[in-house]
Amino acid sequence: MSFRIGVRSRLVVLLVCLTAVGCGDKSIKIGSKSFTESVILGDMATLLARSKGYPADHVRELGGTRVVWDALRSGEIDVYPEYTGTLRQELFAAKQLADDQQLRDELAQHGVSMTEPLGFNNSYAIGMKRERAEQLGVRSISDLRKHLELEFGFSNEFMNRADGWPALRDRYQLPQRNVIGLQHTLAYQALDNRAIDAVDVYVTDPHVEMYDLVILEDDLQHFPRYDAVFLYRNEIAEKAPDFLKALEALAGNISDSRMGALNRQAQIDRVSEIRVAADFLSQDFGVRATFREPSLMERLARSTVEHLWLVSVSLAAAIGVSIPLGIIAAKRRIAGQLIVGCAEILQTIPGLALLVFMAVLFVSLGLRSIGPWPVIVALFLYSLLPIIRNTMAGLTGVPHTLVESADALGLSPWAKLRLVELPLASPLILAGIKTTAVINVGYAALGGLIGAGGYGQPIMTGLRQNSVPLMMEGAIPAALLALLVKAFFALVERMLVPRGLRL
To answer: Angle CA(205)–CA(207)–CA(208) in degrees, nearest 5?
Structure first.
């Protein structure tokens, strides 16, 4: 009896300790969007938190505004850099918020607060090559109305924003219809190669100087101010007051030119964002923040583990679901048409659209919208069709004479399936699994958009920075992994399938 009481006492003490640790957890999650300035600001916040003694992690490059905003509201991140113009024109466009105080009141309804502006206004603008603008006599956005022949290439987010291309077109009555959406870095390259004539730019973007662009006058004052701020969950005030005080100290101390110089260091001079942020904090604020940049091998090892996790979990789940569905589809004609039809519909959804839909669905269900699980579910859905089809084809392709022989021997349906049909269908089933695994290795790279890691992270970073070595850091290992996966399943086929049945 005394022994039982002792065990119970220890368990109670352990639970109390764990609860205290959980309640006293001061780790902070910092988010950032998928462009350089946001990443630099996110690194600044991360280093400031660490300098005040708080464990902090930076979840980098989380795709568009909606993704990172949903992550903040759901508590998956605690802080991220944002712009007042984006809040008014994108997130709260229907609210018609006139000033910052109304903006703060609206944010408060979501459990979120906003720092004072950091000091720079990174507004949208329209840029053209200086030579081309002078040749046509274009100085303002209104002047574009005179040149129907001009071709525009805007970033994908700008194409759909409330203050983006549709609103700009209506405000200025622009007649151009040859307008395409591009990744921002690719848009600059297209402009430099004269494939397009105008792009959307940011005031602090170093590419304006690099590509010798002229910013067209916004003569109708379409674009609002985009004052940079940090958004943070209200709990931070109690959870990490020293960090919040340090974050507020940045307000009014980063000018347009200073932020442009920091962006140039990262994008043009190829200095890592975290080093740019650390040097800025040291030089301008005397903050000594320690950080460690992982080596190439460490980055590759981490990316490989993350990528394998995404592929293996989604594939294992797909195998467990698809083979039974394939069996049902082979045995029941109407059910088979319904199963295959649904899987085909899923397969036609673009990968990026399905990933975004999964993130939104996870938010609505109260689950984590960033990280590996939305990607795993999306990969699982994409994996269904090849395995279902091959399972169905393999079973329906079993010779009728062998099926009749099994019936004559008195085998039950289950025994016939297990001993005759599935072994004969196994080459096609394994071929479907192998194809799916190789495809998943490629699709898993989309996980870099929502913080799932894997080989997609360096690919997205390299694309953002126009860095071929960084893109190759993800692309080459992904290609090698696809070959290894193919070789692995070829070995599995040799082990499981008799030589005479191998494809």
So the answer is: 80
pLDDT band at 3 (very low <50, low <70, confident <90, very high): very low
At 118, give phi and psi (nearest 5°). Answer: -75, -20
Digit-coded pLDDT (tens) for 165-194? 999 999 999 998 889 988 877 888 889 888
Distance, in Å, from the CA atom of 412 to the CA atom of 101, rounded to the nearest integer, reads: 74
User: What CA–CA distance (Å, rounded) separates 131 from 403?
Assistant: 76
State the average pLDDT over residues 465-485.
Answer: 88
Tokens representing residue 132 in the block: 């081309």
Please state the rounded mean pLDDT for residues 423-431: 89
Taking Cα atoms as reference points, which of 101, 242, 78, 76 lies closest to residue 87? Answer: 101
Length of the chain: 503
For 284-333, the DSSP string reads HH-------PPPHHHHHHHHHHHHHHHHHHHHHHHHHHHHHHHHHHHH-H
Question: For residue 267, what is the enclosing H or E element?
Answer: helix 256-267
Q: What is the pTM of this model?
A: 0.79
**Ramachandran class of 147: left when φ > 0, alpha when ψ lies in -120 to 50, beta otherwise:** beta
